[in-house]
Design goal:
It is built from one helix and five strands, in the order αβββββ. It is an alpha+beta fold. It has a five-stranded antiparallel beta sheet. The termini are far apart.
């Protein structure tokens, strides 16, 4: 009976955490190999969810590829504490885009530098 309980608990845990691990791995891979681009925040909204105590935000972004092509995309990603309150409509963010599927992208928070105002 104990083996059944442990097995069921393990199966449920894998089912819950596996999608998060896959998304995280894909995000890291996209940041390492994606096409660098710039995105302007058109709007953003709190989804009410958080990951590792970081709010997950729904962004509407206007993306500009190095070729000059632009497109709009809705993207959800967690927002680190540092840019919280600094990122707003009109903010330009560095992103990495999947060259095969432009709707897949990641905001590169490590490359982002806030604009300094005089």
């Amino acid at each position: 009976m104990t083996l059944v309980i442990v097995s069921c608990t393990l199966l449920i845990s894998v089912g819950v955490w596996l999608p998060f691990l896959v998304v995280a791995r894909n995000g890291r891979r996209l940041l390492a190999t994606g096409l660098p681009a710039q995105a302007v925040v058109e709007s953003m909204a709190d989804t009410g969810m958080s990951v590792n105590h970081r709010p997950v935000v729904s962004f509407v972004l206007q993306v500009r590829l190095p070729s000059g092509e632009t497109y709009r995309v809705t993207h959800r990603q967690s927002l680190p504490r540092i840019p919280m309150g600094v990122v707003a409509t009109g903010t330009v963010l560095p992103v990495k885009v999947d060259p095969q599927r432009y709707e897949r992208l990641r905001i590169d928070w490590f490359a982002w530098r806030p604009a300094h105002h005089a």
